[in-house]
Protein: Acetyltransferase
Organism: Shewanella electrodiphila
Amino acid sequence: MTEKEKMLAGQSYDAWEPELLELRANAKKLCHQFNQLCPSEIEQRTNVLKALISPKGKCHIEANFFCDYGINIEVGDNFYANHNLVILDVCQVKIGNNVMFGPNVMLSTATHPLDAIARRTTEYGKPITIGDDVWLGGNVSILPGITIGDNAVIGAGSVVTKDIAGNGVFAGNPCKFIKALT
């Protein structure tokens, strides 16, 4: 199994392997290009996003945007992300349709061993899935392995440490159920 295959499978892998270094370098280059474009250069911004994350439909991300690989991010139709989105996509990140992110949202599939010696040479990840019609407020952090169900609203500043069922408002650190949506 290659290091990339291990990474995508959520197994421990060597992030400094040449293929992964090359893929990350390409994503960093595309993020840099995207972040340097004028907001009015909509066609060029869209083309860079298509090369980076291959959105499934209408997709608007404000600069600055950063990701590890891009190729592991699946974005549904009608996606909007405000400034300073960070997605650490060592495993798959699936974002549904009609999803909105506030500023400074961070999704991290990447994690590391607790053992200090193992942490020096390996890392691993767990996928993140976000359903349809989800709104993440500003400064929300989604940790590795999380699934957020359809029609969930995550309040600003929340840290999502456990799966969210959906159809409600959730907030806090750690993020918890606040109220149902009717």
